[in-house]
């Protein structure tokens, strides 16, 4: 930086002033002069600029007015604009000098429109003087320069704070991301391994300058993360429900393709981030995979659907494939398909309203003809219940009691006559009825004592529940 003593123009014209030029310094030989500390100043927008200036004049003159202007040539009948009185400058410019020799001035919050050549003028009681050439002010803003607007996660990137002004590496810089101050104080901000959290708007400023650069967007790109799959139903999924599977995956750029696959199938069963299954069936159970893709890669994850349904295809069968005679043991078996598995099997005889037993297998030992009839089972899980068709249990053979009845009736008809025969038949029927009741009690007792299956409290079992059961599904409340 050099000091330059400027020649001055006088009005009215005076004799020619000879200028002595020595090592870039102009001086007048008659005691007049204006010296600027610099002929060019570059300032960052929003900063404060101070122009150092001194002036001199012969002692016989008296200073009447001093001011700064940005116009050297004025139109006819116009005065040079006094910046201290201009609305655009009046609130931002301050004279630091005096009316003797110091003409320094300060301009705050400089704007790009402030880029001009500025001149100091002073007026004496006889003449007006202007320092020419003046001081050129160049106002520029800061800029953040990066190697690219998009950077792959894990790669490195450098951001540089630049300006047309000469910013030295020894200056103290301030960096911002999304208006939050960072710790780095260097001209170049180095991010060696970019993470997605580093994405945002970056700006910089120079210590002592209030205005930061315009923000520059740093876009960190990456392939899809492992997808997260959610199921619309928060509880159990039962046949007939409608279920939505929602797939979400964080990525940049966003996922542009969602594909759904079931089990090991190679062809997709759906697309889009939501896969809807209406009126779901048991065969919809299984594992579903969601695959997400963007231009950088793909990822996938799986979820398992477990569809519950009440018992179906309920059937009752008899263990014996041959003729059942009195004294045999018989097993009745109830089978069904359900999810979750059946937890209650109940057995009924069609001539009775209350259950006669429980358990998937119902055993009858030492059977007699009085225990014959139609039997069915009811299978129940937490979703619903269903009954089977009835199966017939027929007991064949002649018991000793039946033989006694026939023999006694024949004997009485031949010997004692009709009256005696009738009395014998009535007696034998009472005996037979008593034995039938005893056998049915034995049936219930044997079932209750069977510890292979769950024992029910038969006295509290309401017959109304099973009177209304049909093969249709019934869901538990």
List keywords for this structure.
477 residues, mainly beta, Immunoglobulin-like, 4 domains, eight-stranded mixed beta sheet, five-stranded mixed beta sheet, 39 strands, 40% strand
Overall domain count: 4
CATH-level-2 architecture of the largest domain: Sandwich
Number of helices: 3
Percentage of residues in DSSP E strands:
35-45%
User: pLDDT below 50 for ≥5 consecutive residues: which ranges?
Assistant: 1-27, 399-430, 442-477
What is the CATH superfamily label of the largest domain?
Immunoglobulins
3D shape: rod-shaped
Average pLDDT, to the nearest integer?
Answer: 78
Distance between the termini: 93 Å
Report the CATH topology name of the largest domain: Immunoglobulin-like
Q: What is the helix fraction of residues, given as a range?
A: 10-25%
Task: Give a description of the structure.
This protein has about 475 residues and is mostly beta strands. It has 4 domains: about 5-140, Immunoglobulins (Immunoglobulin-like); about 140-220, Immunoglobulin-like; about 230-305, Immunoglobulin-like, CATH 2.60.40.10; about 310-465, Immunoglobulin-like (Sandwich), CATH 2.60.40. The chain contains 3 helices and 39 strands. The strands form 10 sheets. Strands 1, 4, 5, 7, 8, 11, 12 and 13 form an 8-stranded mixed β-sheet that branches. A 5-stranded mixed β-sheet has the order 15-21-20-17-18, with no helix packed on it. Strands 33, 34, 36, 37 and 38 form a 5-stranded antiparallel β-sheet that branches. Helix 1 packs antiparallel against helix 2.
């Amino acid at each position: 930086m050099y000091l330059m003593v400027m020649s001055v123009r006088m009005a009215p014209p005076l004799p020619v002033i000879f200028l002595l030029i020595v090592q870039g310094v102009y001086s007048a030989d008659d005691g007049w002069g204006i010296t600027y500390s610099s002929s060019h100043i570059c300032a960052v927008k929003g900063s404060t600029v101070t122009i150092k200036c001194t002036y001199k004049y012969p002692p016989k003159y008296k200073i009447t007015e001093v001011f700064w202007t940005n116009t050297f040539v004025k139109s006819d009948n116009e005065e040079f604009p006094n910046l201290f009185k201009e609305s655009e400058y009046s609130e931002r410019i301050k004279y630091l000098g005096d009316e003797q020799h110091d003409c320094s001035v300060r301009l705050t919050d400089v704007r790009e429109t402030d880029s001009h050549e500025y001149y100091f003028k002073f007026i004496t009681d006889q003449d007006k003087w202007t320092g020419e050439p003046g001081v050129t002010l160049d106002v520029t803003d800061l800029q953040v320069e990066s190697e690219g607007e998009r950077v792959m996660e894990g790669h490195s990137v450098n951001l540089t704070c630049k300006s047309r002004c000469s910013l030295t590496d020894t200056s103290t810089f301030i960096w911002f991301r999304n208006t939050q101050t960072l710790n780095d104080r260097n001209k170049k901000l180095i991010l060696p391994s970019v993470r997605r959290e580093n994405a945002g708007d970056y700006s910089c400023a120079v210590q002592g300058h209030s205005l930061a650069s315009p923000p520059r967007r740093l876009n960190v790109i990456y392939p899809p993360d492992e997808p997260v799959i959610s199921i619309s139903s928060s509880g159990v999924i039962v046949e007939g429900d409608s279920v939505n599977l929602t797939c979400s995956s964080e990525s940049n750029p966003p996922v542009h393709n969602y594909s759904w696959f079931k089990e090991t199938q190679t062809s997709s069963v759906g697309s889009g981030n939501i896969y809807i299954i209406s009126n779901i069936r048991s065969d919809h159970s299984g594992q579903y995979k969601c695959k997400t893709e963007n231009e950088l890669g793909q990822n996938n994850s799986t979820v398992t659907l477990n569809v519950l349904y009440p018992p179906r295809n309920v059937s009752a069968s008899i263990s014996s494939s041959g003729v059942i005679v009195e004294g045999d043991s018989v097993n009745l078996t109830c089978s069904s398909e359900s999810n979750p598995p059946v937890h209650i099997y109940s057995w009924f005889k069609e001539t009775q309203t209350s259950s006669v037993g429980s358990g998937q297998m119902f055993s009858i030992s030492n059977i007699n003809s009085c225990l014959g009839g139609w039997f069915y089972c009811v299978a129940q899980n937490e979703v619903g219940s269903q009954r089977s068709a009835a199966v017939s249990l027929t007991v064949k053979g002649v018991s000793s009691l039946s033989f006694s009845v026939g023999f006694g009736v024949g004997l009485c008809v031949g010997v004692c006559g009709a009256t005696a025969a009738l009395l014998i038949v009535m007696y034998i029927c009472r005996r037979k009825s008593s034995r039938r009741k005893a056998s049915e009690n034995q049936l219930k007792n044997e079932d209750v004592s069977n510890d292979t299956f769950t024992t029910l409290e038969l006295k509290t079992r309401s017959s109304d529940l099973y009177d209304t059961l049909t093969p249709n599904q019934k869901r538990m409340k």
